[in-house]
Amino acid sequence: MNRGRTATLPTVITVYGAGFLQGCAFVLIPALGRILSAPPYRWNHTTYGLLYLPEMAGAILSALGAGEIAGAFGIRGVFRIGAGANALAMGLLTAAFVAHGRLAYGLVMVESGCLGAGFGLTLAAANDYAGRLYPGSATVAVTLLNALIGAATALSPLILHFVARFGHWGWWPAILAAAFVLTALGPLPVQKRAHATRESWHRGMFLFALAVFLYAICEGSFGSWADLYISVDRGQGARYGALALSVFWGTMTAFRLLLALIPERWVPRRVFFLAAPIGIGACFATIPLLTHSGPLVAIFGAAGAACSIYYPFAMAFGLAAYPEQQTRIAGLTVAALMAGEGIGSFGLGPLQAFIPLSRIYFFSTAWAIPLMALAWVIVRRERTSSDTR
After folding, report:
1. Neighbouring residues of 42: CB distance < 8 A, sequence distance ≥ 6
2. Angle formed by the axes of helices 205-223 and 326-342, to 10°?
3. Inter-axis angle of helices 368-388 and 269-286, to 10 degrees?
4. How far apart, in whole angstroms, are the C-alpha atoms of residue 174 and residue 341?
């Protein structure tokens, strides 16, 4: 990467460290699926699915407001408010560990809203910072940031599962709360306030948002239900559900790193972008056909690989298309990500009262069609823009 003037080691650690912590925090509710369905909680699928609603709402509202917050407090303000909201969320989840009954559920619901707000603001600022820290390699910088987030989502369920074996799963969110506080106080690049935050929204921005939204429904369907699908629906045991969740995020991370580092002259990034929907559809079609733990873990790993680059490439193409409104386009795509994640996570809960999850996965194969169409439009637009520069 070509370093920008603001890409000092402490600022890079702060920005990319925030991404890592966000990934660790983001996956905690999905990773707690088995624990929350067992005593003393005993939350059913619908009750569990409702936990994603405040997160979705908080993320959408905060991400959409990131541009306006940046106009008032700068990108630094967006980042620090987001990190603080995440710290509060992890503190509430720690409190839920020692609470019982309705109090525990209420704490997790509030935690979900705070986590959503923290996610929306922190990632809007972090993706913006990543592109600005390395202006000559923005696509790679954004993809690597999201690869680090993916690494965290793969590691966090394993850590949670490990401490839960000793009856103390609340230790992990407590550690994350302290780490978020340190991140909120960390050094950040000295920059002007967000560019053109007062300008009107461009209709073209919503093309990128729609692509990310539909993609996120797929990601939420895989990531938020892998644990319960394998350990409960398929009866393969808690360790296989946790393993599938970690493998899903782990392969996503590995492929993000791999594909981001392949030189453009070897394989154009648009080729990977167009191939991703095909892989996503194939995984949805295959999951219902499998019943044993090994193949199920493997197919969720394949799903992680298929999901790896659609979102970061769409984000990077959007940042490149609107260089003067990067905080706004970053916030919009993060809001779209969380809206789709919310539907993929929450929506599948009540829906299972009418149709089994295996069949939902099979019908989800159809998402590949609009994802491919949107990727094609974005690629043609990006190629046209490159030709006119």
Report:
1. none
2. 40
3. 180
4. 25
Rounded to 5 degrees, what are φ and ψ at 241?
Answer: -65, -45
Q: Are 227 and 34 in contact (CB under 8 A)?
A: yes
What is the residue whose two structure tokens read 């407590």?
174
Cα 265 from Cα 83, distance rounded (Å): 38
Q: How far apart are CA 92 and CA 111, in angstroms?
A: 6
For the chain, the first-to-last Cα distance in angstroms comes to 22
Calpha distance 92→145 (Å, rounded): 27
Q: How confident is the model over 51-83, as pLDDT tens digits?
A: 878 888 888 888 778 878 887 888 899 999 999
Span 14-35, pLDDT tens digits: 999 999 999 999 888 878 877 8
Which own/partner contact pairs does 356-362 have at CB distance under 8 Å and 24+ positions apart? 356/233, 357/225, 357/228, 357/229, 357/233, 358/229, 358/233, 358/287, 358/288, 359/288, 360/221, 361/221, 361/229, 361/284, 361/287, 361/288, 362/284, 362/285, 362/287, 362/288
**Vertex 57 angle, CA 56 and 63, to 5°:** 90
Closest CA to 283 of 317, 238, 237, 251: 251
> Rounded to whole angstroms, how far apart are CA atoms 218 and 95?
31
pLDDT 10s digits, 183-242: 999 988 766 544 444 455 677 888 999 999 999 999 989 988 888 888 877 878 777 887
* pTM for the structure as a whole: 0.73
